[in-house]
Every structure is written in C-alpha cells, then in structure tokens.
Amino acid sequence: MRRSVLVRFLGLSLAVALGAVIATAVIATYSTSEKLQGEIDANTGQLQVDGEIYGELTRYAADHPTWSGVDRLVHDLADKLGRRIAVISPKTHTMNEAVAIMTGATEPGAAVSAEKFTAKT
Description:
The chain is an all-alpha fold. Helices cover 69% and strands 0% of the residues. The chain contains 3 helices and no strands.
C-alpha cells in the first residue's frame, strides 16, 4: 500500500507539473501574439504614412522639373504627419549626412565623417 501511495503521489505531482507547463506555454503564446499583432498594426500605420509621403513627392516630381521648391511640401508633410522627412541628392549628400542634419548633429553643408556615425560594439 505504501508503494501505491507513492506512485499515486508521483503521478499526481507529474500531472500538476505538466499542467503548469502547458498553462505557462498557453499564456506566453497569447501574450506574444497580442504583442505581435500590436506591432503589425503599428507598422501598417507607418507604411501607410510612408506611402502618403512617397505619393506626394512623386506627384511633386511629376509636376516640377527640379526639386528646388520642394522645401514647402516637405515641411507641410512633416508637420501634418508628425514625421521627419529628408530629400537628399546622392551626388551631394550621403545618408550619414542626412541623418546628422536631421538629428542636429551637424549643420547643413558641414562636413560629416562616416566614422562619427558607425556603431560601436
């Protein structure tokens, strides 16, 4: 009888442990999928805004032979959408320079070294 009680107790303990593991896995799965759905929704909204910016700049490019007057459109879009927007010429500016100018790390037209913006590990 003593052995039978030990076996039952061991079986019950294993069943409780298995139930706890399964419950934890289910809770983690639901929590993760809710967070992922939130990220997907946020990214979808950002992509819609990016599409709107792209569409406006494409319309501007179709209607104007140069980018010389695009400043007003870019500022209006940035104010309206709450985003930072940079239109750069690959011949005169690098992406590092655009980021530096937008973040205030340097003034427009100032020389920017690429080493200043490389990630340090």
